Amino acid sequence: MSSDGKKKPFRKQKSSAPAETSASAKPGLQARAAASKILAAVIDRKLSLDGALDHEHGNPAYKALADDDRGLVRAILNTTLRHLPRIEVAVSSLLESPLPEGARSLQHVLSIAAAQILYLDVPDHAAVDIAVEQANLDPRNRRFAKLVNAVLRRLGREKEEILRQIDDIPSMPSWFLERLEKAYGRDAARAISDSQLQPAAIDLTVKSDAQAWAEKLNGIVLPTGGVRLAAFDGSIPSLEGFDEGLWWVQDAAASIPAQLFGNLSGKRVADLCAAPGGKTAQLILAGGKVTAVEQSENRIKRLRSNLERLQLSAETMAQDLTKFTPDELFDAILLDAPCSSTGTTRRHPDVLWTKGPEDIAKLAALQERLLRHALRLLKPDGTIVFSNCSLDPSEGEEVVAQVLKDTEGFERVAIEPSRWPGLEEAISPLGEFRTTPDMLKLPAGFAPGLDGFYAAVLRRVA
Question: What torsion do the CA atoms of 286, 288, 291, 295 make, to the nearest 10 degrees?
């Protein structure tokens, strides 16, 4: 698929890696089999899609594929997860009776095939034939092979009508859509849900002269000051300026929290939960003397590598944040806290299938503990920005409200909408940032939207 998520034909490419495990296997069978296994892991076992698609530690069936087949698997899985509620209704409508409880693996095979037929430029007959072959090769599903053939062929024949019938079905699981309706209202929740069907664009944060970089890279300058790229073929590292560390990939919304500090020249700054380092880089460029803290040693290594490419330096340490007690307090602190990541579903469509209400509650409690600890590390008159990429107010607005309610000596600093032309709608009446994926309308040729993000500015007054 192109960088803007538009359909493009899949082309087989030469590769030294074996695409099939058997000379008699149908072309593409192993890729679809891997996609079905990974979909099962995400839906049934709540495993991360990024983890399954990791080139070093991911799913063995995925790692055994050639590079072009890996790309096909990623496209199929992202599409399936984005449209899953609609796909499940489409398939169910063609079944005379529901599949038995023990046929979960068959359900995943059907979903993978249906995604290709309904939403991807894969020939219908290829999707059908391979799904039937998958059923025949699995002793549990062999008796359903004729059913698979009949259902998917009918899906192909009636594709346009079925697409019209399922168009009004929200693309989110009901548990999360209900939470969004409660927080934002029915219409806004549906707009957020629909916006997820458009894959995220590629945004860059540049060290300087965003307009010049927009012209060089066929992009557009965003209200956040970053650059959004139009669709392009090729890899990010191949673009001008990457090797020199003159910019880095960072969603427009993710670039906002660090900008809320303004000029940090001469100030001692902490970036807590700092990896992968995009916000750390912003704080350095704003003039701060930055200490970047991250609990995971592996994530700190990644942060250090990213800063090295960008030719920027900061003090870095791998440490449990709740036990972090510096010798000197900070003038400014950025706490981009761990969260459910429900604002990133355009690029991580598995999130809503691997998490549930109990996860949000646990993460909100963790965020509150981290924020209370971070406040202790701030100098009088110092500023802290609390942020995360969740759409759920229980992980944002409610955390800050509770902490301010029972913590003396701190106040909320209202963000001025006039300072963010083009994003005024993202500033709440209390002066907090709340972006949703359906915001940020752009000219034709550039994908709209940005990640869902929350950010609030607090100041120590005593």
Answer: -30
Kindly report, residue by residue over 367-394, the tens digit of the pLDDT.
999 999 999 999 999 999 999 999 999 9
Task: Give the model confidence (pLDDT) of 56-102 as tens digits.
Answer: 899 999 999 999 999 999 999 999 999 999 999 999 999 999 998 88
Please count the other Cβ atoms lying within 10 Å of the Cβ belonging to residue 426.
Answer: 23
Question: pLDDT higher for 44 or 22?
Answer: 44
User: Which of these, 392, 299, 300, lies nearest to 339 by C-alpha position?
Assistant: 392
Q: Count of alpha carbons within 13 Å of 427, Cβ hemisphere only?
A: 16
Q: Are strands 410-413 and 453-460 parallel, antiparallel or unpaired?
A: antiparallel
Is-contact 255 278, C-beta < 8 A? yes
Position of tokens 């359909």? 7
Q: How far is CA 198 from CA 71, 75, 438, 446, 449, in A?
A: 18, 13, 10, 12, 9
Catalytic entry in 389, 403, 415, 423: 389
| Strand 410-413, strand 315-318: pairing | unpaired
Residue 389 among the catalytic residues:
yes
